[in-house]
Amino acid sequence: MEGKAYTPDEVAQFFQISKHTVYELIKRGDLQAFKVGNKMRIEHSEIERYKESTKAPTKKMQDPLPNTQTSQPISLSGSHDFLVEHLVKQAAQDLQLQIQPTYIGSLEGLMMLYRGQSDIAAIHLLDPASQEYNLPFIHQLFVYESIAVIRFVSREQGFIVAKGNPKGIESFTDLTRKDVQFVNRQKGAGTRFLLDSMLAKNGIVPTNINGYSNEEWNHLSTASYISRGMADVAFGIQSAASHLGLDFIPIAKEQFDLVFRFTNENKQNLINIINYLQSPEFKSSLTDLEGYTIEDLGTVIFKTSKMEETLC
After folding, report:
1. Least reliable range by pLDDT among 19-23, 220-224, 241-245
2. What is the arithmetic mean of pLDDT over 283-300?
3. Distance from first CA to last CA of the chain, Å, rounded?
4. Which helix (H) or strand (E) holds 259?
5. pTM above the 0.70 mark?
6. Burial class (CB in 10 A: 0-12, 13-18, 19+), 183
7. Which of 159, 227, 257, 301: disulfide with 249, CB 3.0–4.6 Å?
8. What are phi and psi for residue 125, nearest 5 degrees?
9. Which residues of the chain are in CATH 1.10.10 domains?
10. pLDDT value for 275
């Protein structure tokens, strides 16, 4: 059974949910799937992983952080990342605090935060003009709100290729070769922002890239195209390549931040999460760090004047 792959209908029956909900979970990146022809399939191990992630937490810290408030779940929107998944899991275990993620890409996640539809946005958006990450977008969108931007991690972005790099991918120019098939991220994803900026910098027209219009919604599903031989190269994070035993060619280091929008209802929970990010307990729980740098984890890199007294 371990190697069996299931259809969305079978997964829907297993979890007693609608088929449309299964497709939404796949679209958001909560459930990893792959394609056989034009049919979607979900591996048994992925079903088990998702089932475990939905279980109620039982572990508690010996010394819980003070002022934990559990009545209101926290909504997180934005970019998918394996360490964000880890934060969601650890917050449930150690803080008894439910963080509900919606992985829809950095730009859409930030817009959800702007509209008051989430409490935290996970973003890595490169501003082409300043070549600065995240803060230019924050300054444009949030004027009167109570906002804090917390550094989460730095990540390696680059080319994800098959083991041994059989097509000899070395540069962005190689993406325009006729014998190279590319798979892209969706519009609004931080990785797509970085890719398009790099293409423009190298004078490459996207229509010259085979597969540029073929979009996936998270790093693992994009990398799975390479592992299954459906594409030759993707642009993504090193940890996705490592998860699937693929090779990785580093191109750039990016800043991945968490943006907190405070309200009277969520303020205490958000403060608890920030304190937890800065705690030795959380940092020591991070073990799979290939492609990541966490030396600035928990650093407050921006806060509005309304948050001066709250966050020091």
Report:
1. 19-23
2. 95
3. 52
4. strand 247-262
5. yes
6. buried
7. 159
8. -105, 120
9. 1-55
10. 97
> Are 133 and 106 a contacting pair, CB within 8 Å?
no
Whether 159 contacts 209, CB under 8 Å: no
Look up tokens 């195209």; give the residue: 225
Comparison of pLDDT for 145 and 29, the residue scoring more: 145
pLDDT at 17: 73
Taking each helix axis from N to C end, the angle separating 19-28 and 8-15, rounded to the nearest 10 degrees, works out to 110
Contact 97, 57 (CB under 8 A): no
Residues 6+ apart with CB under 8 A from 209: 175, 176, 182, 199
Residue 207 has φ and ψ, to the nearest 5°, of -65, -10
The predicted model gives 103-129 an average pLDDT of 95
Question: Backbone dihedral region of 205: left (phi > 0), alpha (psi from -120 to 50 degrees) or beta?
Answer: beta
CA dihedral 89, 93, 95, 100 (to 10 degrees): 30
For the chain, where do the domains classified as CATH 3.40.190.10 start and end? 157-253
CATH architecture group of domain 1-55: Orthogonal Bundle (1.10)
Mean pLDDT of the chain: 89
Q: In Å, how far are 33, 187, 188 from 105, measured between CA atoms? A: 17, 8, 6
- 227: closest CA among 251, 214, 243, 238? 243
- Neighbouring-strand partners of residue 36: 39
State the average pLDDT over residues 154-168.
98
Residue 76, strand partner residues: 101, 120
